[in-house]
Amino acid sequence: MSSHLVLLCPDCFGRRFGPRFLGRVDDSGKLVRDFYKIFNQVITEEIPDGLKLPDSFSQLVAELKNNQYDAKTFAFSLRAMMEKLEREIRESKISELMNRHFAASSIPKGIHCFSLRLTDEYSSNAYARRQLPSPELLPVLSNNSYHHFVLSTDNILAASVVVTSVVRSSLEPEKVVFHVITDKKTYAGMHSWFALNPVASIIVEVKGIHQFDWLTRENVPVLEAIESHHDFRNYYHGNHIAGVNLSNTTPRSFASKLQARSPKYISLLNHLRIYLPELFPDLDKVVFLDDDVVIQRDLSPLWEIDLQGKVNGAIETCKGEDEWVMSKYFKNYFNFSHPLIAKHLDPDECAWAYGMNIFDLRAWRKTNIRETYHFWLKENLKSNLTMWKLGTLPPALIAFKGRVHPIDPSWHMLGLGYQRKTDIENVKRAAVIHYNGQSKPWLEIGFDHLRPFWTKYVNYSNDFVRNCHILES
């Protein structure tokens, strides 16, 4: 009997295929060919309306055994069950990604407590308000014979880890100067922490954005965009699922969109690095660090690197052992269907990393990097934020174009906040490890096997840390 006859005979499916399902006839090759013909026909047709699906595979097999299906109905049922399962898995994964996004954007209870208590200490304890650094050390803040680090963050615990890890890794901590910049609401707590917990040998300055006279709307147009542009704010704080076709969206592409919508990208603290030459007019070179890094090796050799007239020393991110993390080109960040992007950029140009950069401020002051950055921010706003994704890096990729000197990748290891399979031995060897991505080590969603590289620099004996139960399970 041909497969065409099977389709014409509703009761024939069980009689024809049932014995073979039960193993009584060894004719598997022909059976597979018959199935292929039926499935090939069904895959191009619409699933019939009202088709009642079995609740489980066991029920499907039971109904098949009881001759309740002709071949075509069986094929349609199997296809509909698989599509339903795929849809449920996709929706479940997207729901999980949304929950992770909210977890990554939230402030853990312990860290919130930590900040509040330190802020309260600033108002009640004169020692927490003492000048940083002490008056006799103020000239060091502009002395270019020291190694100047800049850290911009509103996370006090993260700042303490970065500073402590630099000190423990430094061969000459007495030559280290840290410029910690925070926002107005965090300033008191941040100042309290470093005033009450001085780090041996190094000099720490804590400043709030409000204390920099240069940071005005005239000089920093991104301020106005952040505060007033409806599309800009809605993009980062609106409904992230609105307008997304879940049936055509892969979890990986949705995860990328969510990462691009992290609220931190509209924080001035995140844009602050583009203004370093103006904020530190007396400094020649600085190393800028993100707050989600840990330093494991002495960084003083960075000041000796010849940047060959370039402004920005950074690792390239288009080549390396980890193909998942180190495979970033301009095409990964920009929308090349936009005419301005297609006209000015090369999709195959290698990207580079923010998070640990050596900046030659003397060379920078001779360029129009800041103006270029502002121009492209405005163009992206005019284009309804369709030119790029992933926050502050894309406009920086354009602004620093042609002004980046690649440094050895061993200086900066990326991906500890999104690559679960990060090689532990490579982590141990890297000078700076970077928890870029959602899974920060201070969050519950951080990767347990990578967290100890960060927590080893948390002072668990400190009263504020202990009383706020930081990272306790």
UniProtKB/TrEMBL annotation:
Q: List the PANTHER family.
A: GALACTURONOSYLTRANSFERASE 13-RELATED (PTHR32116:SF27), GALACTURONOSYLTRANSFERASE 4-RELATED (PTHR32116)
Q: Which family does the similarity line name? A: Belongs to the glycosyltransferase 8 family.
Alphabetized GO MF terms: polygalacturonate 4-alpha-galacturonosyltransferase activity
For this entry, the protein name equals Hexosyltransferase
GO terms under biological process: cell wall organization; pectin biosynthetic process
Pathway it acts in?
Glycan metabolism; pectin biosynthesis
Q: What is its EC number?
A: 2.4.1.-
The record, for CDD domains, names:
GT8_like_1
Main location per the UniProt record: Golgi
The listed locations are: Golgi apparatus membrane
Q: Which organism is it from?
A: Gossypium gossypioides (Mexican cotton)
Going by the UniProt record, its keywords in alphabetical order are: Cell wall biogenesis/degradation, Glycosyltransferase, Golgi apparatus, Transferase
What's a Pfam family this protein contains?
Glyco_transf_8
Protein's membrane topology: Single-pass type II membrane protein
